[in-house]
Amino acid sequence: MTRALLALLAAAPLAAAAEPPLTLDEALARAARQSHDLAIARADAGLAGADALASWQGLLPRLDLTGAAGHQFFGASDKLQFDPTTSTLVPAGASDYASYSLDLRLVQPLVDVAAWQRRAQALAARRAAERSYDEASLTVAFEVTRRFYEVVSATRSLAVLEKAARRSEELVERADALFAAGRAQKADTFTARVNLGNDRIAVEQARTRLVLARADLATALGMPGDAALEVVAPAGLDGAAPAGGEPPALDQLLATARARRPSVAAAAAQVEAADAGVSAAGAGYLPTLAAQATYGRASTDVLAGGDGVLADPTRAYSASVGVVLTWNLFQGRATEAAAQRARVSADRTRATAARTLDGVARELTAARRAVVAQARQVALATDNLAAADQGLALARQRLEAGLASQLEVRDATLKLTQAELSLVQARIDHAVATADLNRAVGGAL
Known about the structure:
This protein is of the alpha+beta class.
């Protein structure tokens, strides 16, 4: 009794640490919080947002405050020099004195076409990054769904193979009984045991596939690959036939994808950013106009008297206000090269956007075809399972009546196992194909 209690207490932490089985919705929610791929895409979108914030640099005013403190040194000379400490001319001997200055400069751009185009380019790039994050969310959601169903498939396949092994155990017992009654040969008992061994090997292989499927799902969820995950299959997975009927026509799916698919929107935003980049590069030929105001004070003292650098700001200062025109007339053909590079980049971006749209069309075509084909396979696999179940029942009846051999029963058992596995896989494949179609179109249909 004491040993049993100690064993129970030792196992308690493990039981407490075990997580409850995950539903598909819970797995998707966890991936949204923990996926490393989504974290990377989120960071990329954040960087694009920072670039958009920095694009205000050429449009908003700039205010700089500069202060300096030190000494100025003069070497001996035959000439007279002005001594600021006495405000007189003295022989130019070696001297030094303190030097303090304070300057304030305000610059407000007035006309800068390139800055406005860079702002437009940064905003378009931010929208592209945000849509790329949405595309990454779709991709992660599909990957989690696919791996979730792989765990369901591996779990159910294992259950089918374990049931097949139990049927083989029954055949071993029956072969032994028939041999003892003189109604079967000894070779039949050996054959039944070999079949049982093969079925048990298949069970072990299925357990290995289940472990790997769980590790893949954990990785997709942003968890350690050794996490012991259990899943709960969606309720609609066991229907006799897939619900919902045939998906919409391909033309309708394409129109929906053009409006909803994030990768299409991201490609359009990238083209917009590239066009703005062309305009920004071309604006390098144009002048810029800015308003500028400066205020400065310089002194040999900090606070002494009314003329110290930090004393009365209305005395001993210099100030200026004006408009500055800057026009770069020639820069070693750098502006021409930048414009050419921007145009080539825009052409490349357009080609990439066209390729993206073609890829979406291909994905939709393949995904829709897969949904239709898998729905038919589910119906066929359901009929096959019913026929295989009847075939095994008939083979067992014939064996009991002495009209069939163990080989006939074994063949019927294998057909039933194959039919069960085919139905499991067909249902999983249809669910995955439906999720892939939803991803390709940009969201749930």
